[in-house]
Design brief:
The protein contains 4 helices and no strands. With 147 residues, it is mostly helical.
């Protein structure tokens, strides 16, 4: 969940947050580090006592949280179907993508299309259009890339 941060960096962030908020329950920590929904998932998977004060968390318990942030594994079991399909929000910043080719400005030969990008709009086909248009541009340009 934090691909730009190393295991050690995530551990340092958690250690600092827990030191700063040692008097708070674990459930009231890390608000600046992850979204509330993501924290809810991480805390549930950790099986830690959320009423425990952050200062009382053991190194082993903290490293368990770090491990979840860095190596969480999930399996998709089902979809809701087309009738409940919705647009996503968030994703790769368009500032990191060449709009003429859809290639990453950070990683050579990596192309983006559709809702993997941080682009969304009103319902009514706009998201489908951006998906098709960027998919075409990314496909055309990636095919031209020298191997």
């Amino acid at each position: 969940m934090k691909p730009t941060l190393s295991f050690a960096q995530v551990d340092e962030i958690l250690r600092n947050d827990f030191e700063k908020n040692g008097h708070k329950n674990l459930s009231n920590c890390l608000a600046d580090f992850a979204s509330p929904k993501m924290l809810e998932l991480i805390f549930r998977l950790s099986q830690l006592d959320l009423a425990k004060h952050a200062s009382k968390l053991s190194k082993q318990e903290r490293l368990k949280l770090v491990g979840l942030f860095k190596k969480i594994e999930m399996t998709v079991e089902s979809l809701f179907g087309f009738e409940k399909a919705m647009v996503t929000s968030g994703g790769v910043s368009t500032k990191e993508i060449d709009s003429k080719t859809m290639q990453s400005k950070l990683i050579e030969n990596l192309y983006f299309a559709g809702e993997i990008m941080d682009v969304d709009g009103p319902t009514g086909g706009y998201n489908l259009q951006i998906c098709w248009a960027t998919g075409y541009v990314a496909g055309e340009n990636s095919a031209l890339t020298k191997q």
